[in-house]
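User: I'm curious whether this sequence folds into something compact or stays loose and floppy. Could you predict its structure so I can see for myself?
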Amino acid sequence: EEIRNISNSLKENKIEVIYSSDFNRAMDTAKLANTNNQLPIIISKKARGLNMGKYQGLEFQKFINSEEVKRSFENYNIRFPEGESINELNNRLYTFINEICNQTSYERIAIITHSAAISNLKAFVSNDKYISLKMCCLMYKDNKLNVIDYIPVNEKIKNKQKRM
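Assistant: Here's the prediction. I'll summarize afterward.
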C-alpha cells in the first residue's frame, strides 16, 4: 500500500526524475514505485542513510544501549565510531540536494532514501526536533531548502496527499 501511495504521489506531483540511495531497500522501493511512471532513476551513494560505522547492522538493543551511540544522539557533532555524525549526514544530504538542483534541468525531483536520513534532514532544515517520517517534501529555491510538507510515521499518507 505504501509503495502504491508513493507511486501515486510521484504522478500527482509531476515528478520528472527519481534519485535513490544505492542500498537495496531504497533501490527496490524506487523501482516498485516507478513501475507505472517510467521515470529515470539515478542511483547515488550520496543518498545513503546515516553511516553508523561499527554499529551498522547490530541488534537494536545493543545499538541503542551503547554509551557511544547515546553520545552521538545527544551531540550531533559526535561521530558514530568508524561512521559519521548526524550533522555530517545532514550536511551530506543538503550538499547532495544542492548539487542536484544546480546541475540538472529537472524541476520536480524525488529522492528515495532512508527514513532516519530524511527525518534528520527535515529537523536540520526546519531547526525543529527530530520526528520519524514516512515522507517529506522540500522546496529548493535561492540555494536554500525549506520544508513544504511531511508525513510522520504514525500518520497515513492518504490523509495528507490532498494537501501536497
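Summary: Confidence is low (pLDDT under 50) at residues 159-164. The helical segments are 2-12, 24-33, 60-64, 67-74, 86-103, 115-126, 157-161.
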